[in-house]
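for the recovery benchmark. tokens below, seq after
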């Protein structure tokens, strides 16, 4: 731990410049904004919690993530390709010697919980408090003694962007607790599982593990979730910029309200197919067995479930092929596979629109305009859950400005964000 005064002096003196350059994928001469951001969060901590410059603190970070391959495959314990991005949630935190955990998120306010009891609280479901309590409980069950702490959080990972702001927050809270009370002994893969546990059991959302793993591990990773207790992940070393492409995430501006049933239906229908064949999830069903059984199970599970299962098997195979293409440096093949995944999501997975209102198809329009602006180059696909939210595009560097201008003209200023793959997941920046 170091005092706020010492932190600010080190920031001003450039002590963290090389580290921040590495984390945020910017040359050293451009990282003044990140020094200023940390100083801003430290100032916010002091103001909110009534501390002076001699208060001891630590600084933590967790990134958002982008789904590169494997759309709606993780909840069937399939394969994904994901990467952390250079947008993050940043926290300044310190123990407070009480039984209260107080987390102030800039723009959202304070969340405080009494940690005397860490059992799930029904009234907290679907709230930030439930995530914090669930993470605390899981880490306590690992054998660590935890007491209260204060934290001031500022995030530039926008909610509803498909960049996993909730998983980013979960990993950040896990990193804070690990740094303050666990001697940084918890592997980031464990913190990812803890975040998923909190989201599933305490928050009440039946999410997969891809989001948390993508935020926690850092860099580009491929994950095989077949063993649900021990998912296998592997780093994939590739620089998209070196291939002459930028990774762009575009917010379609669609409203997420009333889409819970649409999102839930995707894993439910895939599981229905698996159940019809005596299994829990599709990864346990051999593809040949599935295709042979379609005539027998089609009526009971429904045609959309069959199509979604077909997407699942094909997209898992595409992830393996994408990883191979990146390892071989065959970026053209990789782009072809990205486009194929996007077409499969549109045609088989059917997570582009709800079709309850034929006039309301913002994701489909965003994809169509992106295809037009790319002019046969690069690749584009739906990003994340679908139905609303974002699309992803790999854009030739020479076309980035025109692409961003065209998409922002359609969807609003700032809808298009140019991303870099961050090589570091959840971490301690200063202590």
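predicted aa per position
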């Amino acid at each position: 731990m170091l005092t706020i005064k010492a932190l600010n002096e080190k920031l001003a003196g450039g002590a963290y410049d090389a580290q921040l350059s590495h984390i945020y994928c910017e040359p050293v001469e451009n990282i003044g904004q990140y020094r200023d951001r940390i100083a801003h969060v430290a100032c916010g901590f002091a103001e909110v919690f009534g501390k002076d410059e001699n208060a001891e603190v630590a600084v933590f970070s967790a990134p958002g993530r982008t789904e590169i391959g494997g759309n709606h495959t993780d909840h069937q314990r399939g394969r994904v390709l994901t990467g952390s991005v250079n947008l993050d949630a940043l926290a300044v935190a310190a123990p407070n010697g009480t039984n209260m955990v107080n987390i102030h998120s800039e723009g959202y306010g304070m969340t405080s919980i009494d940690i005397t009891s860490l059992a799930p609280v029904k009234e907290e479901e679907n709230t930030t408090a439930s995530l914090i309590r669930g993470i605390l409980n899981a880490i306590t069950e690992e054998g660590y003694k935890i007491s209260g702490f204060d934290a001031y959080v500022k995030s530039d990972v926008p909610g509803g962007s498909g960049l996993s702001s909730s998983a980013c927050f979960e990993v950040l809270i896990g990193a804070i607790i690990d740094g303050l009370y666990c001697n940084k002994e918890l592997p980031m893969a464990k913190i990812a599982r803890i975040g998923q546990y909190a989201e599933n059991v305490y928050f009440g959302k039946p999410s997969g593990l891809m989001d948390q793993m993508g935020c926690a591990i850092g860099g580009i990773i491929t994950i095989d979730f077949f063993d649900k207790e021990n998912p296998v992940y592997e780093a994939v070393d590739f620089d998209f910029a070196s291939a002459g492409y930028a990774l762009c995430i575009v917010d379609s501006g669609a409203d997420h309200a009333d889409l819970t049933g649409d999102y839930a239906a995707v894993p439910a229908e895939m599981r229905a197919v698996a159940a019809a064949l005596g299994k829990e999830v599709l990864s346990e069903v051999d593809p040949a067995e599935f295709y042979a059984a379609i005539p027998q199970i089609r009526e009971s599970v429904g045609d959309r479930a069959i199509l979604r299962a077909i997407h699942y098997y094909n997209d898992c195979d595409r992830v393996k092929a994408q990883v191979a293409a990146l390892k071989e440096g065959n970026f053209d093949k990789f782009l072809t596979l990205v486009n194929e995944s996007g077409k499969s999501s549109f045609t088989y997975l059917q997570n582009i629109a709800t079709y309850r209102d034929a006039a309301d198809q913002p994701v489909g329009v965003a994809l169509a305009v992106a295809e037009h602006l790319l002019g046969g180059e690069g690749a584009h696909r739906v990003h994340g859950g679908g139905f609303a939210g974002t699309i992803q595009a790999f854009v030739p560097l020479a076309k980035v400005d025109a692409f961003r201008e065209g998409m922002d003209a359609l969807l609003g200023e700032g809808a298009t964000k140019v991303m870099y793959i961050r090589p570091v997941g959840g971490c301690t920046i200063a202590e």
